[in-house]
Write a structure and sequence with these properties.
The structure holds 2 protein chains of 2 kinds. In chain A, about 80% of the residues lie in helices and about 0% in strands. Chain A is mainly α. Chain A has one domain: MetI-like (MetI-like fold, Orthogonal Bundle), CATH 1.10.3720.10. Classes of the chains: A mainly alpha, B mainly alpha.
Chain lengths: ~220, ~230
């Protein structure tokens, strides 16, 4: 337990809160990597997921490839890309995008897929075109699940962003790997606690956002 | 390729070390999540706290957990036990919900008929509820299997022996073939253990092969463990 106290002391030390290696800078880097990777992954995965959910085509392919992508160990991908492209941000960033895509894609197509067929039939019967059905009926109803996919992807990336420091980038993982090299366990533990705190805070914010996102009509119906 | 052929013994050792970390974690998570999932399903009062706790546990990144466990349970910083305990916790976090949901999906009429036929609660659980919930529990186990095998590699940055050491060693020495071999072997191990789980399911639950539901199958958004 005194190791936890030492880690806590490390975090509270004002010297660790200033300069280019300070906790605020590293935390900002960590968040920036996360949001950039999730943003790129969402830009790729959401259109594909919506198309699969809307047309119902390619579902087997999507399910198969997302579960296969989950088996890829991210550390292996990061080290492989870093060997090919050199150390820096490109290799971990590409690996984080690959990591986030399966969850976001699954959320998008499962969300659209879960809309009851009689609801979309009713929308078509009212004269909506395919695009209108997608944009005005399927996407709003699927929004909580789409966001759920983004939330799961964000959590995975914020956790994994620790590994960016392994190939020479920044983020909170810096402290962990420095502590590992210098046998400074309190510093490693401090890094671990900071990442855990960041992940839990992010999860709380995203979970709240997901609750707000349920369309009013659906919320009222499910409350009854 | 020459590197791979020259290091077959090393690859085998790493694979075995990988299995020694992954398999106990998966089995322990499976064994522990059945009673926990049952408790979450049976007792409304603990359902909320148990599932919220599982969700929070799941939000904790694995590398920090590997690092923090020695301070919490008093093991050595590079002990394999840390990895097994951490991965078991993640497996439980994922599977408890699967088990609770699978048990909740058993129709109440079935419960009542089984009770009317004279099943004791214990007998009904093992002979009626578990067989009916089996396929959904197996689906949860498969997600846990694949993610556990992939997560084991992360412990290599702390120096724990597994296929992940091929990544760290290959990166430090600049051997692309070693990293690629590690990637391929990790995926092969994940797919092999997944296939083993499916096969075990086929043998233990022969009834799932007949009478597939004719309903349009819906894809579930599977959750996933971050590193």
């Amino acid at each position: 337990m005194n190791q936890l106290a030492a880690a806590w002391q490390w975090i509270l030390d004002p010297a660790h809160w200033a300069g280019p290696d300070g906790i605020p800078v590293r935390m900002w880097e960590h968040l920036w990597y996360t949001f950039a990777a999730v943003g790129i992954a969402a830009a790729i995965a959401i259109p594909i997921g919506l198309a699969i959910g809307h047309t119902g085509r390619g579902r087997a392919l999507a399910v198969g490839s997302t579960s296969a992508a989950r088996a890829i160990p991210t550390l292996g991908l990061i080290t492989l890309l870093a060997l090919m492209w050199g150390v820096g941000l490109t290799a971990p960033m590409v690996a984080f995008v690959v990591l986030a895509i399966p969850s976001i894609l699954a959320g998008a197509y499962a969300g659209v897929d879960s809309v009851e067929p009689h609801v979309t039939d009713a929308a078509t019967a009212m004269g909506m075109t395919g695009t209108q059905v997608l944009g005005r009926v399927e996407v709003p109803l699927a929004l909580p699940m789409i966001w759920g996919g983004i939330r799961a992807g964000t959590l995975q990336v914020v956790a994994t962003a620790t590994l960016a420091a392994y190939v020479g980038s920044g983020g909170l993982g810096r402290y962990l790997f420095r502590g590992l090299k210098t046998q400074d366990y309190p510093q490693m533990l401090a890094s671990a606690l900071l990442v855990v705190g960041l992940a839990i805070a992010l999860e709380a914010v995203l979970a709240f956002a997901q609750r707000v996102m349920v369309p009013r009509g659906v919320r009222e119906r499910s409350r009854r | 390729m020459t590197w791979v052929l020259a290091n077959l013994g090393l690859l085998l050792d790493r694979t075995l070390a990988h299995l020694a970390l992954a398999v106990p974690s998966i089995l322990a998570a499976f064994a522990l999540s059945i009673p926990l999932g049952w408790a979450a399903f049976r007792y409304r009062l603990i359902r909320g706290p148990l599932l919220t706790g599982a969700g929070l546990l799941y939000a904790i990144p694995s590398l920090p957990l590997f690092v923090a466990l020695p301070a919490l349970i008093g093991t050595g910083a590079r002990d394999a036990v840390n990895v097994i305990v951490a991965l078991t916790l993640y497996g439980i976090a994922l599977m408890t919900r699967s088990v609770a949901d699978a048990l909740a999906a058993v129709p109440p009429e079935t419960h009542q008929s089984a009770t009317a036929l004279g099943y004791s609660p214990w007998g009904r659980f093992w002979l009626v509820e578990i067989p009916l919930a089996g396929p959904a529990i197996l689906a949860g186990l498969r997600v846990v299997t694949v993610s556990t095998v992939s997560l084991v590699t992360v412990s290599a940055v702390l120096g724990v022996d597994s296929l992940g050491l091929l990544f760290t060693d290959g990166f430090q020495r600049g051997i692309v073939a070693e990293v690629v071999a590690g990637l391929v072997l990790t995926i092969v191990v994940a797919l092999a253990l997944d296939a083993a789980a499916v096969l075990a399911g086929r043998i233990l639950m022969p009834w799932t092969r007949v009478g597939r539901p004719r309903r349009r199958r819906r894809a579930q958004p599977a959750v996933e463990v971050g590193v």
